[in-house]
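Problem 12. The chain below contains 218 residues. Write out its predicted structure in token notation.
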Amino acid sequence: MAFLPTRTLSAVVLVLAAASPASAQSSDPPALSVSGGAGIAFPFHADFSSNALAWHASIRARGAAHLFIEGVYEQWRHTTTFVTRDVTLRNAAGAPIAVANLLKTEDATTVSYVGVNFLLTGSSGRARISGGGGPGVLTYRDRYEVALSGCAAVNPRNCEGSILRDSRQGLGVQAAVDVDVSLNSRVALFGRASIATPIDDPGAGYAAILAGARVAVF
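Solution.
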């Protein structure tokens, strides 16, 4: 696993540092809250040579004094781009059919997770820690695009690019730990560490480090 980028690590450190004891606030969690944030995803599969930007949104309802029921949506995207210059395209027989100044291929994978988590929670001063997990659905979307620039051919169709798309989904599970630090009675900053993985192929899952803000609706 690669080291966290400095900005992401700093954001998490700031959230945790802000949890130092301060003036006492109500320890009762909000009945309903919404959150949004961003960070870094760490795909488990060896096909992904680097980490990816990730974003997160959730809505939480208080199920009991020390239990949240959370609906969560997370997504990350990984893109690999290759550029080749002065390319001669050939047919199946090996005969040249087009010449292009530039051939660009883009291979993008987008992974989305939608699920429901059951989180035990407790607070101390301004800090609240929540942890647990639950079931969900992982969706994988692949997009492979080939684009040509400065292309010349007798048949113009030989200079057309192509786009291939594929998608698949399956049942998965997520485990997550959050640290929230209250700024006031309605707004808190949070840092989150999570793991989501398909049930039938754990090696295709990912871990994520995220930070953002949570707002109490009531």
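Discussion. The beta strands are 32-43, 52-64, 67-90, 96-124, 127-152, 162-182, 187-198, 206-216. Students who got a different answer should revisit the alignment rule from Section 12.3.
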